[in-house]
Amino acid sequence: MNTIRSTRDDTLRPTPYEMAFPDEGFAESRFSAIEEEARSRDANLDESGAFLLLAQVGRVLRELGGEASPTALVPTFGAFLFHAFHFHRAAMPSFLVETSTLRYLLEADAASDRWEGELPAPAGYLQLPRHLLWARPDGEEGPAEAVDGIFWAQSARGTLNFLAVTGIRGDRPGFSVLPVPPVPLAEVVSWMTRPAREEGEDFATTLPGGEMDRLYSLETPGEVVKLAARILAHAVTVDGAMGEEEPPVPSPESASESPSGSASAPASDPSHPSGPPSAVRSASRLPFRRIRLAG
Prior knowledge:
Blueprint: H1 16-20, H2 24-41, H3 48-52, H4 55-65, H5 70-89, E1 94-97, H6 99-107, E2 123-127, E3 133-135, E4 145-154, E5 159-166, E6 176-184, H7 185-190, E7 216-218, H8 221-237, E8 289-291
Parallel strand pairs: 1-2, 1-8, 3-7
Antiparallel strand pairs: 2-4, 3-4, 4-5, 5-6
């Protein structure tokens, strides 16, 4: 089946992981230290609570957080660091959801009775078409930000962790995050059809005039789980839905990337200075696979 690609999904954009860790050597050394400490303390890295108690995790938060207190960063950047660690550990599986696929999964009754929770990888990142799905990370009164994608990470105890990322823009560093409490895998499967909003239709836009541009909104943590479940189920149960791995698009190196590996914090965290805007690559450095309607 031939797919007409939108400018919203022409190639994988730089992921939040790459933005936070432009120096892969920095990430490798810090994450190796976290694993070493976890082994010495017999700590369960699959559980976010145990992960965030590790001294090496606190060290990374201090290094990346500047003058901000590591404790203040735990609900936002700590949650991101947990997913970044597992994303790195799983060899950074990255998936680009095509526009037609996302619209179908948001608008149709896209539940699959063949999905029993199989995943394409134990952790990964689902990047969504740009500027199609919106959220308000600071609550109903806060500004709307485009949703870039959703991280997932599976635990050995049969739960899934999700984290939505919003607010990635070319004119500023940083991003916002929407953490979701761990969900038992059996419940993730049922979320494909479960209502996620108390009022109104799930994923319906809350932006003024958003209906005219066929935009969508995430208003609740349940919608994050519901959307991620539908994407993952579609990817593993529909023949040809996952394309072959594509190499990253060549792009000139940004001259302003920091060799020290310093990271930009979530844009919604006022306690974390994000520094001056830096040049942003238009494409990711990571190989990726597309998630299509079908092959």
